Amino acid sequence: MASFLNDINGRYASEERTILNLCLKNPGYSLADLAKELDTSIPKISRIVGELVDMGYLADLGKQESTTGRRPSIYGLNPEAGYFVGIDVRQDGLSIAVTDFPGRIVLFEHDVPFRLQNNEESVSKMCAAVKDRLRKADIDIGKVRSYGVNLTGRVNHETGYSYSYFISEEKPIRNLLEEYFGKAVSVENDSHGMAYGEYMSGIADGASNILFLNVGWGLGMGMVLDGQLFYGKSGFSGEVGHFPLLNNQQICRCGKIGCLETGASGLALHRLVKERIGNGQPSLLTDKHKAGEDISLDDILNAIQDEDVTAIECIEEVGTTLGRAVAGLINIFNPDSVIIGGRLSVAERYLMPPLKIAVNKYSLNLVNNDTVIKASRLGKAAGAIGASLLAKSRMLNN
What we know:
The chain is of the alpha/beta class. It has 3 domains: 4-80, CATH 1.10.10.10; 82-197, CATH 3.30.420.40; 203-376, Nucleotidyltransferase, domain 5, CATH 3.30.420.40. It is built from 14 helices and 14 strands. Strands 5-4-3-6-9 form a 5-stranded mixed β-sheet, sandwiched between helices. A hairpin with a 4-residue loop joins strand 3 (83-89) and strand 4. Helix 3 packs across helix 4.
């Protein structure tokens, strides 16, 4: 199959793109529905849809249910048109998701061992590791249309630069990835990618204004406003973790004091638990602390699942701090939904109640009445799924 840019380059290019984008959110349309959406005639739509079917992008999905009259054919994205691969790069590994053309999940793998370093050789090894996983899962790499890669920190998806993995001033990391994958690549901030995953296939449930808080080792936010990812002027919106909210005299990783991240993140939870154990408060992790062994964030999250009182008290403190910030965000944005995701969301049983209490205490009632606060539905898969769906969306809109 020819490249998408070569395919969609004829007399109906804009209409073809519009139809394909409509099918991103709706599984199928009749010719009459499409004619209405594009405000044009059914004969013209029939010709355009026929071309898209011939190119392999659309497929006849069968007849629509009807109680009266002739049942019309329904057209939607062709599952055989190719795959989109999403890669969520974390500190301790990769998550990989493969979706087909309509957006159904074909493969998801979490905790693929890899630590991306700030050099070109590491980028090459990561791409090779991803391709190896795809081959082992019997994914035809030749049918991959594009790749999406989520990276932590500041990412400019338009220029392709990551300022966490700033390998070369002359060559953005997107270009390196495209060289090694041999296909178009979309790069994105991880919180933005997770927000898009929830918006398109998660818990957003049709809402057009959502805030997604990525509560991991750090704290980030992705915003979907009026159905579009919001980036701000320079593409770096969502740095809520560095909002100067706290008076705790804790130095943030950014070098400043009192950032929200120092009290509402995995880093904060890790510090609070270690402080309390160091002060003699009993915990399932006490023996490990006394032995001089490192206590990881996963150790703490596992202790919470095992109902360790000290760890639970600390996650509740994090929830309260985060809730104050969410209250402020609700007052500013008045969103449909606030979705809590990231690594700490696995402890939602203890994180969410104090968070919601703080929201009720600090936000304006008239503003928060219509906002729903909930934990991520996609969980660990949100980032990789969002990256794959963004790769498809950007290919269709390039």
